[in-house]
Design goal:
The complex is a heterodimer of chains A (350) and B (363). Chain A has a single domain, classed as ABC transporter involved in vitamin B12 uptake, BtuC (Orthogonal Bundle). Chain A is built from 15 helices and 2 strands. Chain A has a two-stranded antiparallel ribbon. The longest helix of chain A is centred in the C-terminal third of the chain and has 39 residues. Chain A is globular and about 80 Å long. The two termini of chain A are 18 Å apart. With 363 residues, chain B is of the alpha/beta class. Chain B is 37% helix and 17% strand. Chain B has 10 helices and 14 strands. In chain B, strands 2-1-3-4-5-13 form a 6-stranded parallel β-sheet, sandwiched between helices. Chain B has a 4-stranded parallel β-sheet with strand order 7-6-8-9. The chains are: A mainly alpha (350), B alpha/beta (363). The interface between A and B is large, with 77 and 59 residues.
């Protein structure tokens, strides 16, 4: 085993090597890096504005981020399976537009929500079928449906916006949970996050998602029903995106086709920043949650700053997206180079 | 390895989400609910204390102004008026806006602004109702809310600064063309699209105006539609002039139309003979005014809209006004204003631009 040779050669080099290994094992984990970044953000944010570390910031910041957070959960599983879904924000818009349309046609909210979720599931299944049955790359398919679903939302409701949803429901989505500073939407997120964590990390289904992402062919030949699992993942993604559409509609008391434009970028950034590999097979729900906290915190800090324009939110999001793909890649390359040079040294010495 | 009933798992997740949301099923629909989430009026916190027209303006007052979208030159010019008003009053204004004009993109901006505890927020709403809950929360914390340019839900702000009214546009435009053609002759209107709501409302007022005795010698012969497309407007202008040889004037109450019509006239033999007025931007119309194609045209001054909003915000914070109909306040260089119905403050009649004043305006 190559790792053993590395360890033994290091042990010969210096006696402080074991300590260095521990240090590396802890820091090597992506989640640890995210926690460190969160700490740095807390300090930087507080320097930017004394209002940063307040419950107020958490309440409004997490409320503003609740749709992205919801959509990121199934998206993480899709990306672990080495696929991608860029249509989530457009499915959210379809759901919002559909809510507006049905409410205008006299339906009660209790009936509208399941219909929206089913519509979202259908959108997701549409993506899934194109990817699995026709064998198209999900990147191309979901860029297509990103435009297609958004267009569909405009067909449903046009440029109108519907705003007279009942206060009981809008308060439920906008309000705080049981008198605390935690918004209801975040409670919903926590429940779903727990569900997805169990699904991905503690079920055979989750293990097969990792297997597919790591090596699809091997997964297929070991008997996994790859296509069906992917179809389910896309359907889940669509369903939860539709749920996010319900949340954004009730929370803002506005159903419209132009809501949530560009949120897919933030959701993908959260997932990749969370340590999910863009090439599949790696990543955790915990990492995604940490990344959501980090992204939400950065957005809040930039908003609270008196001098930084909100263009910087886009710039930072974009930079983090690239950084989170580049970071692990670089680490692996550097490690690879060092390992090679070390084995060369060994060959020379022997 | 068998993929462990993923269907059941998916269904469970969805059911969980549903259950959480359907905490109390009450079956309320649009038809039996009284409109929406308008529980507490945003002006409630301002009711106390009454009005004192001479109350001192707060020193070092801070405001935040929220445009629909960053990077729009028209809005930047408008918001520079707020800066001007606040600087004049010894305070300061900060512009903080979203990067796209989606229905809900202003909400995070409002929430963050409130945390900085400004005296007032001045907002041009992307969606009148999406921003209402956040604005009401701001009002509950004592932040005064001023709507500007495009209104937000009336119960979510104290006053709204309207750049102009339908009536004032109709009146102003007819007066302008009458002035140019000497109160006599055939005129035509070059509008945008046939179903543009604001255009049609203005044209309706113009037709009413033309019935007045002072305009009895002016005859409206045609309303043409240039669809707010430069080329189409250009061709429609040409068509109008060919079809009506006795045409004396054209009103084009759209910035695209008036610029295209001016461009056509500037190279035609009728330059200076057929008069043109409309709603136009000084920067677009400057060369046509300078070369004699257009004597005058009109628009509101965006910077004044912002200036008035800044002054109104200061008056609200000082307690000089609360937003009730009939209250009066002094708005610096613009003079005295009275609050109208629904907390609306109208900037005033259109500003007329001629070769004498056009160089004072850069927008």
């Amino acid at each position: 085993m190559p790792t053993e040779t590395v360890v033994s050669s290091e042990a010969q080099l210096a006696d402080r090597a074991p300590a260095r290994r521990d240090w590396r094992r802890v820091l090597g984990r992506w989640e640890a890096l995210l926690v460190a970044l969160l700490g740095a953000l807390a300090i930087a944010g507080q320097l930017i504005s004394p209002e940063f570390l307040t419950t107020d910031s958490f309440t409004t910041g997490s409320l503003d981020f609740s749709e992205v957070a919801l959509m990121a959960l199934p998206l993480a599983m899709v990306i672990v399976a080495a696929e991608i879904d860029l249509s989530v924000a457009s499915v959210l818009a379809v759901s919002s537009a559909l809510m507006a349309y049905l409410w205008n046609h006299g339906q009660p909210v209790e009936a509208i929500i399941p219909i929206c979720l089913v519509a979202g599931a259908l959108c997701g299944a549409f993506n899934g079928l194109l990817v699995t049955r026709l064998g198209l790359p999900s990147l191309a398919v979901t860029i297509g449906t990103l435009a297609l679903f958004r267009g569909l939302a405009f067909v449903v409701i046009g440029d109108d916006s519907v705003t007279d949803f009942p206060a009981t429901w809008t308060d439920r989505a906008f309000g705080d949970f049981a008198g605390t500073f935690v918004p209801n939407t975040i409670v919903l997120f926590v429940v779903l996050a727990a569900g997805f964590a169990v699904l991905l990390h503690a079920t055979p289904f989750g293990r097969s998602v990792y297997a597919i992402g790591a090596n699809e062919e091997a997964a297929y030949f070991s008997g996994l029903r790859v296509k069906r699992i992917k179809l389910i993942l896309f359907t889940l993604s669509g369903t939860v995106a539709a749920l996010a559409g319900v949340v954004i509609t009730l929370r803002n008391s506005t159903g419209a086709a132009n809501v949530g434009q560009g949120l897919e970028l933030t959701a993908v950034t959260a997932v990749l920043l969370g340590g999910v590999s863009i090439f599949g097979g790696r990543g955790t729900i915990a990492g995604v949650i940490l990344a959501l906290l980090l992204l939400g915190g950065i957005q809040k800090a930039l908003l609270l700053s008196e001098s930084i324009s909100s263009y910087w939110i886009q710039i930072v999001t974009g930079a983090l997206l690239i950084g989170s793909v580049l970071g692990p890649n670089l680490v692996r390359r550097v490690a690879g180079v060092r390992r090679r040079s070390r084995s060369l040294q060994e060959e020379e010495s022997s | 390895m068998k993929p462990a009933r993923p269907r059941t798992l998916g269904a469970l997740l969805v059911a969980l989400a549903l259950a959480l949301f359907a905490l109390a099923a009450c079956g309320e629909t649009k038809n039996d609910s009284s409109t929406g989430s308008s529980a507490q009026p945003g002006t409630s916190s301002q009711a106390e204390g009454g009005v004192n027209p001479d109350a001192p303006i707060k020193k070092g007052m801070k405001t935040v102004s929220i445009p629909k979208q960053l990077g729009n030159p028209y809005e930047e010019y408008e918001h520079s008026g707020i800066d001007e008003a606040l600087t004049e009053l010894g305070g300061s204004n900060r512009i903080s806006g979203p990067t796209d004009a989606g229905a809900s993109t202003q909400i995070p901006i409002i929430n963050a602004a409130v945390q900085q505890k400004p005296s007032a927020i001045i907002i041009a709403g992307n969606d009148p109702n999406a921003v209402a809950p956040a604005l009401k929360q701001a009002a509950q914390r004592g932040v005064k809310i001023v709507g500007m340019d495009s209104d937000v839900a009336p119960d979510a702000r104290s006053v709204f600064i309207n750049q102009v009214t339908t009536q004032l546009v109709g009146e102003g435009q007819v007066k302008s063309i009458s002035n140019e053609i000497g109160g006599k002759g055939q005129i035509a209107i070059l509008s945008a699209t046939a179903n543009a709501t604001n255009q049609n409302a203005w044209i309706k007022v113009m037709k009413e105006e033309l019935k007045k005795p002072e305009y009895k010698d002016i005859k409206l012969v045609k309303v043409a539609y240039g669809d707010d497309d430069d080329q189409k407007s250009f061709q429609e202008t040409q068509g109008l002039i060919q079809a009506y040889p006795n045409l004396k004037g054209i009103i084009s109450p759209t910035t695209v139309g008036v610029a295209a019509a001016a461009r056509y006239l500037s190279t035609s033999p009728q330059k200076g003979k057929i008069k043109l007025t409309g709603l136009g931007f000084p920067n677009q119309m400057r060369k046509f005014v300078k070369n004699g194609t257009v004597e005058e045209f009109q628009l509101w001054v965006p910077k004044d809209v912002g200036y008035l909003a800044g002054q109104a915000a200061a008056a609200l914070v000082a307690g000089r006004i609360t937003g009730k109909e009939g209250e009066k306040f002094k708005a610096g260089r613009l003079g005295e204003y009275t609050i109208g119905a629904n907390g609306e403050i109208v900037l005033g009649p259109l500003t007329t631009f001629t070769k004498d004043n056009i160089d004072k305006f850069d927008f």
